[in-house]
Amino acid sequence: MDYLPAENRYSSMRYNRVGSSGIRLPAISLGLWHNFGDVDVFQNGRNIARRAFDLGITHFDLANNYGPSPGSAEETFGALMRKDFHPWRDEMIISSKAGYLMWPGPYGEWGSRKYLVASCDQSLARMGLKYVDIFYSHRFDPETPLEETMGALDYIVRSGRALYAGISSYSAEQTARAAKLLRELGTPCLIHQPKYNMFDRWIEGGLTDTLEKEKIGCIVFSPLAQGLLTNKYLNGIPEESRAAKHTSLSPDSITHDKVDKVKKLNEIAKARRQSLAQMAVAWTLRNKVITSSLIGASKVAHVEEAVAALNNLTFSAGEQQAIEAALK
Ligand code: NDP
Description:
By secondary structure, this protein is an alpha/beta fold. The chain has a single domain (about 15-225, about 285-310), classed as Alpha-Beta Barrel (TIM Barrel), CATH 3.20.20.100. About 35% of the residues lie in helices and about 15% in strands. It contains ten helices and ten strands. The strands form two sheets. An eight-stranded parallel β-barrel has the order 3-4-5-6-7-8-9-10, surrounded by six helices. Helix 1 packs parallel to helix 9, helix 3 (about 115-125) packs parallel to helix 4 (about 145-160) and helix 5 (about 170-185) runs parallel beside helix 6. The longest helix has 16 residues, at about 255-270. The mean pLDDT is about 95.
């Protein structure tokens, strides 16, 4: 064991209450969707995770399929737990999910009880954990009764595999139904995980109202639009970037129109004495329904930059107008 977390790790991070629950999450959380697979450099991911924890990031988000290869991000995280973090398990909130394709055949994706329970067991084995803190239904399944999917989440919690239940990317209407079912089962929905950033504002069309009404927390993923809302793509597509790897961020989505908007936003950020990445993170947190902004990082510096966004979270009316105008 050669890792000792920074003693001052709780001195500057903000911790926001998750809905009406007893849990608080850091305003910035770290996701392991990219950069922690078996194709990536282990020591780089290890440095990122250590630095995150040192800066007060207590929440690490995973899913069964993160890698590549699928499952390997959880294996990497399991190695990090064994090597670095196991003495601090009680200071961490670790989440996983099931919903997307994980294994062949009819039971390897979507929302059946069969799939969710088996997948949760696989995730626990890969991470070497007795339980995860939050287990999510990763996507709504239009063909499985919601009663079955929510019943599976309730069972996963009651059987000790997870402490809390969550849902991801459910619409406002699906969320209201899921919240009611979980409440009736006695396992309230802790949190919703939707995509939210300056380029994708779908949650403003009803979901945030539902979450507020249902007193459910909200952790938003891809606050930087996978790196687009940083200064990375201002002058083309750098070799080491996510877009260059042709994985989840298509180079075709980085249009002239988008880059023009990013340039305008970059000027607004500069006037706020923030980087664009910092302004993008701060912007997601301006709504009090948002509990945490769930970032990804390919470098330690990305985590440091995001956490420093917390030094300026307020937006003047003029700044808000300028951002709206830039996004038009
Ligand atoms: P972000 O929008 O924060 O994008 C992160 C990427 O942006 C980094 O990997 C890096 O990519 C680039 N980047 C980060 N900081 C900077 C910076 N300061 N300057 C330049 N580039 C930067 O989030 P993700 O899309 O990675 O998603 C975050 C997490 O959300 C995931 O890990 C996962 O846990 C969760 N998620 C959940 C989903 C769901 O369905 N529930 C779906 C997707 C994500 P690069 O490689 O180019 O350096």
